[in-house]
Automatic annotation (TrEMBL):
GO terms (BP aspect): isoflavonoid biosynthetic process; methylation
Keywords: Methyltransferase, S-adenosyl-L-methionine, Transferase
Pfam families listed in its UniProt record: Dimerisation, Methyltransf_2
Protein name: O-methyltransferase domain-containing protein
Length: 226
């Protein structure tokens, strides 16, 4: 093969990798919605395909599709495979660091972030990057925060995504004493669900933490709390 052909095939492979990048994010969303990280975690040991299909309540005739989905997810690094011996040697799936933070019972679970950020209203704007108006408004008919008030499912998923993302602060805030040194109070502007303020306030109870956020969000949370 001549040099030009080699270069073209390498370029094609790279191009296709980028064209089909969405396959891994959409497969990840599907894995979270099916509850695959929880099923593997709850199994307590490496899980074979047939055990996974049964744990997920998928009809056995669809096992081959689950296998293909798992191949994509393993390739992307979300899960890994190992060998188990159950009478005969079989392939089985285990969690990786990327899927350990998607298990629902963990305090720092990012599954809501996966579902919220990959919601159709968040994906469609990418089809309209060339438009004069904002891509989000072109795709969804309203600016971001206004749209949210017209799509309660998105609103709930978005704020749950923000809460799960903020929850990660639990891992570091207690080690950031110097950041808050000499402060008596802080205001989290656009603090949403108040998760970050709560995490900071729990780590530094002497700090007065105030959350400034949109009134409609605050009212939604008050209604949900009652
Ligand atoms: C990126 S999110 C921050 C999320 C926050 N860290 C949490 O854990 O929920 C920005 C927040 O600002 C709020 N917001 C948007 N526009 C606002 C406005 N004009 N005034 C006050 N808050 C606003 C939104 O409701 C949203 O919750």
């Amino acid at each position: 093969m001549d040099q030009e052909a080699i270069e073209s095939f390498r370029a094609q492979a790279r191009l296709y990798k980028h064209i089909f990048n969405y396959v891994s994010s959409m497969s990840l969303k599907c894995a979270v919605q099916l509850g695959i990280p929880d099923a593997i975690h709850n199994h307590g040991e490496p899980i074979t395909l047939s055990e996974l299909v049964s744990a997920l309540g998928i009809v056995p005739t669809k096992a081959s599709f689950t296998y293909r989905l798992m191949r994509v997810l393993v390739h992307a690094g979300f899960f890994a495979t190992t060998k188990v011996n159950k009478g005969e040697e079989k392939e089985a799936y285990v969690l990786t660091p990327f899927s350990k933070i998607l298990v629902k019972e963990k305090i720092n679970c990012l599954s809501p972030f996966v579902v919220g950020m990959l919601y159709p209203a968040m994906m469609m704007p990418w089809q309209f990057l060339r438009t004069k108006k904002s891509p989000f408004e072109t795709a969804n008919g309203k600016p971001f925060w206004d749209y949210m008030d017209h799509d309660p499912v998105f609103k709930a998923l978005f704020h749950d995504a923000m809460r799960s993302d903020s929850q990660m602060m639990n891992l570091v805030v207690k080690d950031c004493e110097q950041v808050f040194e000499g402060l008596n109070s802080i205001v989290d502007v656009g603090g949403g669900t108040g998760t970050i303020a709560r995490v900071i306030s729990e780590a530094y109870p002497q700090l007065k933490c105030t959350v400034l956020t949109s009134l409609t969000l605050w009212l939604t949370y008050q209604l949900l709390a009652t």
